[in-house]
Amino acid sequence: MNLTRQELCAALDAQLAAAQEQVCVLAVPLAGGVPLYERGAGRRAVSASTIKVFILLAALDEVRRGRLALDTPVAVTAEDILPDTGVFVDGPGMHPLEELLVWMIVLSDNTATNVLIGLLGAECINAAACSVGTKNTVLERKMLDWDAVSAGRNNYTSAEDLLRVFRALYDETVLTPELCALARSILRRQRDTRMLTRYIWQDVPCAHKTGGLDRLSHDAGVFELPGRPYFIAVLIWDAPDIDGDEPLAGRVSKLVFDYYSQEDTQ
Hints:
By secondary structure, the chain is of the alpha+beta class. It has one domain: Beta-lactamase (3-Layer(aba) Sandwich). The protein is 39% helix and 18% strand. It is built from 9 helices and 9 strands. The chain has helices spanning 5-17, 52-64, 97-106, 110-120, 122-131, 146-150, 159-171, 177-188, 246-261; strands at 22-29, 37-39, 45-46, 73-76, 93-96, 156-157, 206-213, 216-223, 230-237. Strands 2-1-9-8-7 form a 5-stranded antiparallel β-sheet, sandwiched between helices. A two-stranded antiparallel sheet has the order 3-6. It has a two-stranded antiparallel sheet with strand order 4-5. Strand 1 and strand 2 (37-39) form a beta hairpin. Helix 2 packs across helix 5 (122-131). The chain is globular and about 55 Å long. The two termini are 13 Å apart.
């Protein structure tokens, strides 16, 4: 039986009413129009690794401007390599810019991310975020810099701001068409399937970026359903569980996916 929009919203309201954490949700057709569902989409939240989409945008804009190239060699030093890396296990070396961008997104590698922040600078990254009309996004620290957090500096975004950057990459109002296509390709290769795609068994491309910290679980991106692509962001923080609440993000995403997958949506 098809789910009406009213029934979907009631089901999502019930999921969120039972949640003990802070949750923001935004689901909207990629082409625009009235959101299918919105809760706290403009609230500023600690971004965790979702900030990396804006770093990706900034780096590719430097390529567009000719100040960098995808094959520009970038040094990763011994001092850069963080204990949590899943990539730079062979020690320091030179890596092309594009490789660092891939690892930053698909594995959320913090070593690659911090090297890119050092290469680009916070001002460049924040300018790129502003270029797509963000209101709540700012990068103030590198990954795993807990001293900065203690000093009151952190990275922030919102569900609405994440929509702005993903929509710009799909509408190709930033970069060049080729660089937008590259960004989408990298985002589709995301290997973290614990949130938005957790309960989706169908083979539908999803270009997205996750973020996780203690008691925080974020995921945002675009499901490329034929004829009806849509954006969804689920931002969760202050969860009772130290691991956040990835299943809740998955349940919300599954409800939205099932609605959009119907032959007729109300």
